[in-house]
Amino acid sequence: MLVYKIEDYVKEINRCLQCNFCLATCPVYKEDMVESSVARGRINLINAAMVEKTIPLSDRTRELINRCLLCTSCMQGCPSGIPVDDIIIAARHELFNKFGFGYVEKFVFRQVLNRRSVGTLATRAVSLLKKFNLFPGPVPPLASPPFEQRISGTVSPSGAVRARVAYFTGCGTNFLYPDTGEAVVKVLVENGFEVVIPPDQNCCGIPALAHGDQQAALEAIRGNAEIFASLDVDAVVTDCTSCGYMLKVKAAKVLPPGDPCRSQVSAVAGKVFEVTEYLAGLGLDKTPRPQSTRITYHVPCHRAWSRGLPEAPRNLVALVPGTELVEMRDPQGCCGAGGATFITHPGLSERIRSRKLDDILDTGAEIVMTQCPACRYYLTEGLKEKGGIRVVHPVSILAGSY
Amino acid sequence: MLPISGLLKDLRSLVDRGRVLGDVEDLLAYANDATHRQVIPAAVVIPESPAEVAAVLRYANEHRVPVVPRGAGSSLAGGATPSPGSIVLDLKRMNRIIEVDRKNLTAIVECGVVTQKFQETVESMGLFYPPDPQSMSVCTMGANVATRAGGPRGVKYGTTKDYVLGVEAVLPDGSVINYGGKSVKMSSGYDLARMFTGSEGTLGVITRVMVKLLTLPPCRRTMVAAFPELDPAAEAVSAIIAEGANPSCLEMLSQSSVMLIENYIPLGLPRDVEAFLLIEVDGHPAKVEEDCELITGVCRRHGVKEVRTARTEAEAERIWLARRALFPAVAHMAPNVLIEDATVPRSQVPAMVRAIGLIAQRNQVTIGVSGHVGDGNLHPGIMADKRNPELMERVDRAMAEIAREALRLSGTLSGEHGIGTIKAPFLEWEFGPEGVALMRRIKKAFDPNGIMNPGKIWPGSGGDAGV
Description:
The complex is a heterodimer of chains A (402) and B (467). By secondary structure, chain A is of the alpha/beta class. Chain A contains 20 helices and 9 strands. Chain A folds into 3 domains: 6-97, Fumarate Reductase Iron-sulfur Protein, Chain B, domain 2, CATH 1.10.1060; 111-279, Rossmann fold (3-Layer(aba) Sandwich); 286-399, Rossmann fold (3-Layer(aba) Sandwich). A 5-stranded mixed β-sheet of chain A has the order 1-3-2-4-5. In chain A, strands 7-6-8-9 form a 4-stranded parallel β-sheet, sandwiched between helices. In chain A, helix 13 (241-254) packs antiparallel against helix 14. The mean pLDDT of chain A is 91. Chain B has a 6-stranded antiparallel β-sheet with strand order 15-12-14-13-18-19, with helices on both faces. Chain B has a 5-stranded antiparallel β-sheet with strand order 5-6-10-8-9. In chain B, a hairpin with a 5-residue loop joins strand 8 and strand 9 (176-180). Chain B is 37% helix and 19% strand. At the A-B interface, helix 3 and helix 4 of A face helix 2 and helix 12 of B.
């Protein structure tokens, strides 16, 4: 039994004040400038097509429901706190049930992201799919070997152990950016934390959930909950803000009532921290060496699940002597990546990104830091022809000073 | 009536295809404003120039198709609710700030400029555009003029109507009029800018607005006063102004409102009191200081339990953040909340507050009273549930009674939202049949075929019946 059903959101849909304040913050509206690209329009559409069924579930309905980045910008300014992303997810689940899925996506979610132990096989399979042009937009190159084949097991600090933390390794770090994973382990260990990296981790499940494949998300969540709940650790850290959002907030919502994994999922959720916030909160043991760099910070969209999250990377790099943080005009503005939106809607994503790139370039920074691997990839690609400003995870800056 | 397919085809010959929407999935997004009543229009056109507006109006006028101009679709009065079979004109792409004239303290903007963006722009130049409707993050300058929108600063600075120097507007026959300019004084002909100000889209389409600006006040202070009882708090409001203080905001929050806010943003306000006043004073530092002292004195004489002035910018910001949190807090209390806009002379605020209490009791509805009491503009929030027809009947009755009471106290139906559809049935109470008949004749002079936003300001379906 799956739970993200649109019927369960009727009350929330009806609670919408219809104030249209979501118009102010939606990055898709900024580009499209039609109200059907705004949360209020989408909610009214979902209500008409899926709840009251006064209009058919047309291709246009599908397109409008899929034309959302799930960035949650609308929710951050919403006076009545409507869970817009949950409503969109439920609607996409409905679409998934009705229309099924492209076999490419299904294969990626169910076979690649949830079966990492066959990592190399998956890597080969994805390259094959790319070769035959089976993705609508650009697909990032995969790192070889993936992170899980580089470091696993327990890594201990040389001195006293301040705390024992499990490291949840997201797909971004595992398949695209193992350097982030190596930096996370290095910085944690240098600061006296013992790091446990369990094998056979799954994807956090958020990509599958965002695309309506709730079953795949559920399998991912259950697998991870079993692994992480059994560990004797003080915290579960993640370097990815979207994985954190999933583990901390969304996972419990995906579980059906009375699911045997429920207690494990909430036990894990209670321990989840985004790694920079964890470090900034507990403080550094080891003083970073100076480095001279001009840095700007792109705040990922999935930031609202933990209060100190947007400030933590800023506070951490402030501890590195010689670094200068230059703020963008709109540090929180979406970069357009939107998970895999840049693959499914390349034109839309590019237009959103071009605003961000201008903002970045105007800071004169040499490095952009951000905790989201999708943002990192997408911004890196965008900056390639603009002087090659590097995009890294904030922990990598710290790691460079140890 | 024209077949829809023909309409879309014709519109697409006038305006770029991509800016004419005809699929029901897109039209749904334009089917309502913040009043919830949905009417799916026949088409949405998104013009980018007055010439395109003129082309669409000329066409609509010839074929007798109703036209509904639209800003952010955030009207609380139903002014932007589409008419059946109408063309909605989404004006948000005409969003350029044409000029900010520092020497003359004026600005020219296109109708779709977002109010907050405009404010930020002029403030970055040390200038000030005071009208502050609470929807200013999305609402647009043209629509603000069309509804005489305002906000908390109304008590000192007035509302949009007090800043309009001129307009450019397109009439239903496609002609474009320009009225007004940079002169502070103007005594030339009928004041057509005033005519369009508050016209709610019933006369034509405002495409450009010229407004006056002020210089940014150098100093700003925020105060909170907690009163054990509602009545003396309301009395203190009139006294503050009568004694010569000139607050830039003077808001009242009922105890239930404050409790709701405290749950969101704890300010440590006393909980055993009935009313709070939030006060902002701005201007020259010496005068601000003087006003703060005067206000403190008035509050003390009216039995205030606690009055404090925010020491820091951050503390003041926190208080206003709390005020803004009221809307969401109230929204959580019921499936729907109708925000009333009746306004009375300042001296009648205590009487109005008492009357609203009685109206709530009589109709067995819950009404939270808060609002911009300093200018008599109350915003009673009536708890409603649109799926419960029996309750909605009582809500409607309470709304009508509030309207009657405001008029009885020499007030007006609307302070800053406009009449739209929801107060249209009450218009005659305010102006009498003669007043409304004159307004209809004026409309007929501008819009002989009755295509412009029919059914707004006074009841009617549009076309000949609505004129």
